[in-house]
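Students often ask why we bother encoding 3D structure as a string. The short answer is that it lets us treat folding as translation between two languages. Here is a chain of 540 residues written in the first language.
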Amino acid sequence: MHVLMAQINTVVGDFEGNTEQVLSMVRDAVEEHDAPVVVFPELTLSGYPPEDLLLRPSLGVRVEACLKILCEELPAESWVIVGYPINRDGELFNCAGVIHDGSLQVEYRKRELPNYQVFDEKRYFHPGTEACVIPIQGIAVGLSICEDIWSDAPIADAVAAGAQLIINLNASPYHRGKQSERRELVSGHARQHGVPVLYVNQVGGQDELVFDGGSFAVNAQGELVVEGPRFESASLWCHCSLGDAKVVVTGSEMHDDLPETAATWKALVLGVKDYVDKNGFPGVVLGLSGGVDSALTLAVAVEALGADRVEAVMMPFRYTSEMSISDAAEQSQTLGVRHSVLSIEPIFDAFMATLKEEFAGMAPDTTEENLQARCRGVLLMSISNKKGSLVLTTGNKSELAVGYSTLYGDMAGGFDVLKDVPKTLVYELCRYRNDQGPCIPERVIDRPPSAELAPDQKDEDNLPPYDVLDRILELYVEQDYSVEAIIATGIAREHVERAARLVDLNEYKRRQAPVGVRITQRGFGRDRRYPITSSWRMGD
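And here it is in the second language, the structure alphabet:
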């Protein structure tokens, strides 16, 4: 049995386009092997996650139309396993169907519905209750879908029903360290139950989620025999043969594992590329300040889209150093992007003149600093409106956590590339990118970070050192440690209490922040939903 693991990039809601991808890949597979088995990811026909599109009355009509096309147009000799949402007897299920010889042979209903982190499948689907085992070319194949593999019962029940091979359809999003978790889990199932497992994952960016592919197969001993590339579409062949009632899986494709920094870089690049392309933007524009965050954002954007689709704008003010102006120009020239310099001095002066009476008798404070950021936001959004380009914001996770950003200023835009990237990881990624070739001026990385909104300003004037802050945020935001538990790890109380207080107070800002790539187990987005109005403070 020749099996093609189809690691594809679908578009949510594009039922016709996703169906055409299935048809095209199966036709190509038939040319390469007679009667291939082609396996597609979870919810291929609708794309994943479709969210409340699943509640639309026309959903069933669209899916049934796609299934009809597949049954009529797929080569009769092929066996196609594909994921889709379907309404059966008034209940919606997350299904995997097997299409062969012009008809839907069987349909498996996902049993384990995840309802944590970024997943909320219990909002939409009813769980299946039964194993599904189908004979394909003499091998008893047990079907499972994504979360089913994270529990033992669905696999155990399939094996008890006679399955000699498990095929698992996935839409599993990336976070740092995820691939090793998957391999360890799936290998454990294979060893425990004595059956090979094929793990087929989708690839591509969908709003804040990035699916990294990395589809693989393990033999009955839990050993990796096939593994696909990460962060790119792929067609992976493996061969399954039956001998002595045991299935042997072999294959030749084995991609090297990515170091975690390289994987994170690729996740950011793919997330930007698919968000821009799938939403039809001709390109992007961003404010290039001469600082490390905007420098990294520019580097990611150029790799994702190409230099011809990226515009960098330096918007200096009286506090902007000549070093920042020079470094921004140097990076733009190195990467070959369009670079412009638009001073905000006259705009700021005009605002201040208009506000003169309102501010009479009041001393300058952060209001004037925020106004600088808002002048820049107005310019970028105006360029976006005129040219159709998407504004990339440049704030990192550390800043977003503690509110070190300006509403309608540096937060103004459509996509935040570094939204889930802590400041210390920003530096790591900058060095990684420079290792690949000249990109970011070294002194941008080396000098102390500053928003340059006041004379001689530095971030650490108001914040703990970033290595300390990021450790606090990892424990408080991602692992739900209390303040006292964090202090018990040896971090100074004043740093912990200040950071936790700022995180709690700035939820209202984060609700108004643009979407951005998720790369950790808990980002500021769909998997961290805290109330804005709340008396819960200090991480009780």
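Translate back mentally: The chain has a mean pLDDT of 93. Keep this in mind for the problem set.
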